[in-house]
Every structure is written in C-alpha cells, then in structure tokens.
Amino acid sequence: MSIEFKIKPFAELSAQEIYEVLRLRIEVFVVEQNCVYQDIDNKDQKALHVLGYHDNELAAYCRLFDAGNYFEKASIGRVIVSPKYRENKWGHDLMREAIAGVKKYFDKTEITISAQMYLQKFYESHGFVKTSEMYLEDDIPHIQMKIV
Questions:
Q1: pTM of the model
Q2: What CATH number does residue 40 fall under?
Q3: Which of 21, 54, 80, 99 could connect to 59 by a Cys-Cys bridge, CB 3.0–4.6 Å?
C-alpha cells in the first residue's frame, strides 16, 4: 500500500478536497476524541494543505504555516491519519512531507507545533523537542515542541 501527497494553498483546493479535509478532521478531532471545538478557525486560508491519498481517498492530512501566521516560527498543525489507515504508519510519511514542505515553500527549518502530549515520542522521532510544560488545549493535554 502506498500514499501519494500533494501540497496546495487554500485557494487551489477543490470543493471536494475541502469537504474531504473537513470530514476527516471532524471524524478524528471532534468525534473520535470526543472534543467539541471550533475546527474551522479562519486559519485554513493562510495555510498550505498537505493531502495524502491512497486509492483516491484522503488518508492523511496536515496544514503548514509560514512564520508569523500561527506561531512566531513556521508551524505544522492538524496532523491526522484516517483511523482506517493508521496501521500503515503513514503519519511518519506525512511528517516527512510536512517538514520538507516547510523547507521548500517557506525556506524555513525552524518549526513549532502544539502537539497532543501522547504523541510526544512520535514527534521526537522527527526531530522535535519538548519546549513547554503540559497545557490544555480544548481540554486535551498538549505540549509545545520545536525543531530548531
């Protein structure tokens, strides 16, 4: 099984792609994690969107921000792999693509993320280090992490 990525600014996303992204984000961040929060946050328009497809189905996604558009440094957020594809470990492919995308499109290597705390080891495996104490974001424990 393989996954293919494309990176697009918001204005170039089709209505179908936007629908797929929002459906996947709600499926995981709202329903699976039982977290009522405003996912549509008026930041998508500033982001580059990393879409990972397997057999024409959105299997993985995240969004990239240039420095100053979310954090002081460039950032990666809304990192997600569809539950039906998690066994393929495509989160690692997604993070490699996202980190490369930040370098390619923003010419940045310093990246900040707000990571769900239980994923600390996953992000450490991609070069991130913990830079904050635990804090609650939408009632879920998070930590700030950075690649410097």
A1: 0.96
A2: 3.40.630.30
A3: 54
